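Researcher: Next entry in the queue.
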Amino acid sequence: MRTFVKICGLSEREHVLAAIEAGADAIGFVFVNSVRRVSIEKAINISHDIDSHVKRVAVFYKPELSNWNRVIEEFKPDVVQTDSKDFSIFSVPDAIEKWPVYRENQKNTKFPSDQIFIYEGQRSGMGELVDWEKAANYSKKNKMILAGGLSHLNVSEAIAKVKPFGVDVSSAVEASPGKKDIILIEKFIKNAKE
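Model: Structure for this entry, 194 residues:
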C-alpha cells in the first residue's frame, strides 16, 4: 500500500497545483494564527477546482466556533483537523471527515481505531521530530498520519520504521517560513511514495 501524503500550510495556487501534480493525497489550509494562515476567500480561490480524489483539509488548533462555522459553510472542506477531540461541540456535516490531532507526550491518550488521526510534536509547523519508536507502537492498530520533523531527507526512513497510514509535512517544504518550495514538495512526495 502506498503511503498517504498530506502537504500542509499551502497559500499559493502554484504550490497547490505542484503538490497535486507530484501526487499529494491531501492539501492542508491553515486557519490558525500562523505565517501559513490563509483567509477563507484565499483557500477557496487556490483550491476551487482540485480533483475530488485530493482532500482539502481545514486545519485548526482550538477553533473559535464562529470561525469554525464560517470555514465549514464557506470553504466546505473535505476534512477538518483540530486538537479538539470532541467534535460533537462543533457543527460538522457527516460528509466531512474529522481528523483529531494527538501530540507526543499527551497524557491519557486513547487513539481512535476507526478514524484517521494526526500524530505530531508539541507545536505544529515547527519541524519537531517525534519519537519514531513510540509512534510505531501507536500506528500498529490505527490509521495514523505521522507529522513533525519530516523532510525529503528522512521521510523514507520514517515510513520504514513507523509504518504509518500517511505522512504530513509543512515547514520542511518551505524556502522560508510560510513560503513553499516546489522542488522540496516534489522531493518529499517522491520519497514518501517510493
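Model: The helical segments are 13-22, 40-47, 65-75, 132-139, 155-162, 182-193.
Researcher: Noted, moving on.
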